[in-house]
Amino acid sequence: MTQVRDSGVWGTGERSNRLTVKPSDRRRRGVLPAAFCLLLSFAHASAPTTPPATLPPAQEQRAVAIQRNLRCPLCDTGESIAESRSDISIKMRESVREQIVDGRSDSEIYTFFSVRYGNFVLLDPPKTGRNLLLWGAPLLALGGGGVALWAFLRRKGTAAAPAGAAQDAEPYDSYLDQVRRDTGGGQG
Amino acid sequence: MLNLISFTSSALGSLGQIALLGALAFTLAGLTLAVVGGIRADARVVEAARRATWAVFALVTLGILVLMVALLKDDFTVRYVAEHSMRSSPTWIKVTSLWGALEGSILLWAWLLAGFAFILSLTLRRDALRPWALGTMFVSLLFFVGLCATVASPFTPVSALVADGNGPNPALQNHWMMAVHPVLLYLGFVGLSVPFAYAVAALVTGRLSDHWVVVTRRWTLVAWTFLTAAIVAGGWWSYETLGWGGYWAWDPVENASFIPWLLTTAFLHSIQIQEKRGLMRSWNVWLIVLAYSSTVLGTFLNRSGIVQSVHAFAGGPVGPVFLGFLAFLLIVGIGLAAWRAPALRDEAEVPAPVSREGAFLAGNWLFLVFAFMVLLGTLFPTFVEAVQGRRDASVGPAFYNAFAIPLGLGLMLLMGVGPLLPWRRADGQSLMRALVPLLASGVGAAVIAFAFGIRAPGVLATVALAAYNIVGLFLLTARAARAAGGLGKTLQAQPRRYGAYTAHIGLAVLALGLAFSGAYRQDAQATLNLRAATPTTLLREQLALTGLRQEDRGFGTSAIASVSIDGKPFEARLNTYVQAPGTLFPAPAVRYGALGDTYLVVTSIDPKGQWASIRLIESPLVSWIWWGTLIICLGAGLTLVSPARPQARTVPTGLAPATD
Amino acid sequence: MTNPAPSKPNPTPVWRRVLPPLIAAALVGVLGYTLLSPAKNVTTGGPLIGKAAPAFTLTSLDGVPVSLEGLKGRPVVLNFWASWCGPCREEAPLFRELGSQQTADGAAIIGILFQETKEQNARDFIKEYALAYPNLRDPGINTGVDYGVSGIPETVFIDRAGVVQFMDRGGLTRERLNAGLEKIGVKGI
């Protein structure tokens, strides 16, 4: 049962009416974007819904895991349907459970929602297609960084410039020269 | 042209506006003077630039005082007050409204920046770096002061006088932490502008000194401490008000503050290599440039609304202005670093892989990959949007956790090894000897945890690594105490080292809190009836609804559900505020415990006062996160308070000291 | 220390000096493009475009079953709405106007209730705006989920072959309605 309806309405481009732009506030759960038509909470709170049919623990765990990885399609906050209190999230949670009972696999359930709401709802981006860039780049950075680090630590001796030569190796700079003279020969 | 001043409509508003415009003029003058002084190497001109910071600081202070007075006096002729404050707010809310909305927060930012520039002007040495460090501060100031004096001015005239203001953002009112968290965060972000100024000065002049190392390290450490406190304070705010029992959601806003933290942490370690060995000079400058750029990038992402919702900030002038500053900073800053950093050459020999330096560098590697991963995850949806023309991707916790957990564990592993290793080169055998008790205690702790029924591999690894770290630091301290003839003596002799150890212990405590609360959080929902004959059992606790009441607080109302959990009273609230009727802000009731918190949030209350739907969350060791952070900050403070007088330099004979 | 040594060990290659600023510039470029380009397809488009419209059989408020299958061969305008939604009210007169212009083989207009709280409110809404087309109950929002509806109003334009050609989110204006109608070969209003 929800009390706050996360924008049940597509704002007509007036989301800038949001209360503020403070950094941390953009995450507020359940604040509506300038919606003229939220259901006023107390008037709407009818009897609580019946508890959902219980699933066996293993399936229940799967359901929760999937729900955590599906984004609430209308909340600005980026929260998952597991956390969201909007009606559509409640409906999607039910749908996940129904599909698990129907024996669908995790990926079938994710596909079910992505063909309807777009890849936007997938909080755990599948490791295919363009998402390989997302998943691969940190691994590449890890590998590349490791190689660079190893190469640097192994570079022994080759780059060890004689003391004092370092500073002089930079390109000639008239200003620098001037400063050095002013400040007494480069003693910082 | 913007209409900036109207003397007839508001006396305070015009005073504030004049102060800010004056500050802008002094900033421009100071920047010019600093650059001219730098190029001509004219000490008198540089001195004039130095004194310009005083004028800027004084005028921005005047501006912020004017705004504060206007807020406290409910002077609705000042636009910011009319838009973001109201009469019925309590005084502390009026004070915090100063940074509760865009214009005020930019003004606070500018004020802190001017304050840091002022302190810098007092501490800068009379050397070649001075004009360029000042000039860099003036560039940052130019942006922030310019922003709050023009397009984001809180003082521009109001179109019509109002009897009462629109009121502050309700989320600000919902928890006092929201008053503290932004200030800490700005102190952290702004604090990084000083090391950045030193880094730019080093790049422009091609010179580094001992003084440079000491000063940048201290400033960065101050900023880092504030940043650490700010990030965790934000998490605590989230825990206390958002009602989902979590504290970190890998939200772009959170990530934006975390990336600079990662880069700064890397810097704080690698700067020690420069300090002790004269190595990694250009690398350190790079890290500072990147850390400061990442703060501006993060601020841009939040202020422009580009990350979460494309239309959150449509048409606002601040987004493009921030973009301009970001572009300038990234391209010029990174360009300068790329062009000039190679000039900052190292003098000493490259360290052996197994050495203190090696451990620090490996840590740097992981920190950088971590920062890159977070940045990529944050920006990936934006990249997709740029290519596809619509938002068609989301990156959620699943992605971040997949990398953050192994990277975090790797960092903990290095964190334990680092202090054991000597500088330059470690002897393999003695290292193994030193490592054996640590590894044994780690394995032992994991076995004990396993015996207590812990099966999650990440949690077991965290337990093992925490034990290994704490035992290692304890052994090192004990040995040093024995050698120095008492714990007090070694603490006095090496406060900086023990500050670092303390921070590491705090981090181990924090990691345990994260691991346990992340893996073993339990969550259940139920609807409680006021006249229920028997209590409801949820998560092995007996819950009974004992009362429902409504409280009028003037600026809003609270619906309060009193629930007894195992006989202990809890009062969870649902707050509404007059500024946002119909929007409910939960205020969970949390009972903090050393081993776990009990967290109760009301999700809905029957208008007829018969029932309440609640959510009960039990999460273990959450409070360890807050205590761990406190220990970290104390440790960081310990490294600062003591005079960072270098002991006998460990630079071997035959090599030049780490100065130019 | 200031004797200028001519030796220059390993001068940094140019690419290493140029690459970082280029990466930074590219990043700024992407951010700037996303920030400044007017958000495209924010109100239109979606994963269903070009795909067969999901089938449904629902009962209207008058108790008449309506299925998409039964409308095959006609273009269909599907409007998800609720009485509590303001933009739905604003666009309702457009649908009445559109409905009054259609002949028997013209576009079929179907309303589907989305999260309607009180059926009586919906009936009052229909009476107020004199809507003559069927409005269907969607218990459990199953059809809503099938069409990827997350907020209302949302209007789906389905062509004669039963393929989704256009979707519009947010309150329709005359122009936006006509843009959708054009995609399914129906004369605009």
UniProtKB/TrEMBL annotation, chain A:
It holds the Pfam family CcmH. The chain crosses the membrane at residues 30-47, 132-153. PANTHER family: CYTOCHROME C-TYPE BIOGENESIS PROTEIN CCMH. Keywords: Cytochrome c-type biogenesis, Heme, Iron, Membrane, Metal-binding, Signal, Transmembrane, Transmembrane helix. InterPro entries: C-type_cytochrome_biogenesis (IPR051263), CcmH/CycL/Ccl2/NrfF_N (IPR005616), CcmH/CycL/NrfF/Ccl2_sf (IPR038297). Residues 37-167 form the CcmH/CycL/Ccl2/NrfF N-terminal domain. Signal peptide: none annotated. Possible subunit of a heme lyase. It comes from the Bacteria. Residues 161-188 are annotated as: Disordered. Belongs to the CcmH/CycL/Ccl2/NrfF family. This is Cytochrome c-type biogenesis protein. Residues 178-188 have a biased composition (Basic and acidic residues).
Automatic annotation (TrEMBL), chain B:
Residues 99-304 form the Cytochrome c assembly protein domain. Keywords: Cell inner membrane, Cell membrane, Cytochrome c-type biogenesis, Lyase, Membrane, Transmembrane, Transmembrane helix. It is a multi-pass membrane protein. It comes from the Bacteria. InterPro entries: CcmF_C, Cyt_c_assembly, Cyt_c_biogenesis, Cyt_c_biogenesis_CcmF. One of its GO terms (molecular function) is lyase activity. Belongs to the CcmF/CycK/Ccl1/NrfE/CcsA family. Required for the biogenesis of c-type cytochromes. Possible subunit of a heme lyase. This is Heme lyase CcmF/NrfE family subunit. It comes from Deinococcus arenicola.
From TrEMBL, chain C:
The chain crosses the membrane at residues 18-36. This is Redoxin domain-containing protein. InterPro entries: AhpC/TSA, Thioredoxin-like_sf, Thioredoxin_CS, Thioredoxin_domain, Thioredoxin_ResA/DsbE_sf. It is found in: Cell envelope. It comes from Deinococcus arenicola. Keywords: Cytochrome c-type biogenesis, Disulfide bond, Membrane, Redox-active center, Transmembrane, Transmembrane helix. It holds the Pfam family AhpC-TSA. CDD domains: TlpA_like_family (cd02966). Residues 47-186 form the Thioredoxin domain.
